[in-house]
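Hi R.,

Here's the chain you asked about this morning:
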Amino acid sequence: MNFLTLFVLIPLLMILGLWLSRNIKQIRGVMVVGSTLLLVLAGVLTYLYLAARGAGDTAEMLFRSDVTWYAPLNIKYSLGVDGISVAMLLLSAVIVFTGTFASWQMSVQTKEYFLWFCLLSLGVFGFFITIDMFAMFMFYEIALIPMYLLIGVWGSGKKEYAAMKLTLMLMGASAMLLVGILGIYFCSGATSMNILEIAKMHNIPVDSQLIFFPLTFLGFGVLGALFPFHTWSPDGHASAPTAVSMLHAGVLMKLGGYGCFRIAMYLMPEAANQLGWIFLILTSISVVYGAFSAIVQKDLKYINAYSSVSHCGLVLFAILMMNQTASTGAIIQMLSHGLMTALFFALIGMIYGRTHTRDIRELSGLMKIMPFLSVCYVIAGLANLGLPGLSGFVAEMTIFVGSFEHTDMFHRVVTIIATTSIVITAVYILRLVGKVLYGNVENKEHLKLTDATWDERFSVICLIVAVAGLGIAPLWISNMISDSVLPVVNALTNL
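And here is the predicted structure, written out as tokens:
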């Protein structure tokens, strides 16, 4: 058995353990043990991957294995990872681990909640370890299905509306994606669903690419909050429980950017070059529109949700630049946004759990009441606006430097437009911090509130360490990613 299968097997064993659990202690024990094993496994995989590359292994994907699932359509359980998928697996493991502690106080149908949470995690991990298009699609759907119940049952506010809207929009995107994947399969000769094999054949007719590229890019792009198909995201984020928001924004939305890069652009490079400008305009709108929308929001979760639209738009914007620097920046942005938005949603959930409001007009002076959570919120905000030394700065600088490598007017103009989001982000983050954390405590009931508990502190500190670590020492992961984006960039540029 390929050891990559452990990323799927451990969540399955966690589901079995939860089903057999009889009390809250056992449930928590299963989640802590399982999420810790996933984090350790991701760390070991990163070490083994870097060691293999250091030893001179230049294969595009490492730790390969294939098991036939359905021979008539050449569907296989094909496993393999490169620097991009290793980074995504590490991110996913961190979010699942910290999300477990962020949900420590969950008291409503706890077993059922964690069962669906583990199923969502299984889909995410499975998606990143597979290189067979149909298997990727299957894990993609496994990751989406639990979102309906996690929001509809354990959410808050207009949770039924948000759950239904999210499900309908993402299932519509899945239909487009399925048509696109089948189109790629049949137009490439109907001999393999393996991404690497299809890329080597390079035999998809350009006319077919022009049909199936938009379907595939949109199918994944909707999950990546591509304008104007982003509206499910703010509602879903605002209504989801804390750990679900963390996993949703921190990891699930990254499936969109990963799929656009790995399948749509890699397998249909001619269409990407011909039609990329259309999506580049849409992603530029996403980046600026998301930031402007965050300014006018009054709900803490909606502010962070629209901020996520902007930052995820920046991921798609960067991969459409089709060069190594910008593409490397896109993957680092996935990591950075995943960590800092998980940190934001964790802190917002902890503040809401105490104050019972997310309306910034009803919050003030929290620094005096809960200094630990407030200081952590400031750090998250500074990472969001791109302060040097934190992950946001590394990601955004790499993206914009790569984007400016294009010398034509169109690419320069959209890059300048996208960079304005930095200023807009600084406006809403600094204004939010000043309004909510400083000043006098207007609601005297808030004076009775307590600061973070041990489980909350542990979850938040882990995320802050990851955000700071990526910002201070990004070179090792940047090099790991940069080598892996090269085959896709070469396919896009060497036509």
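One quick note: The chain has 20 helices and two strands.

Cheers,
M.
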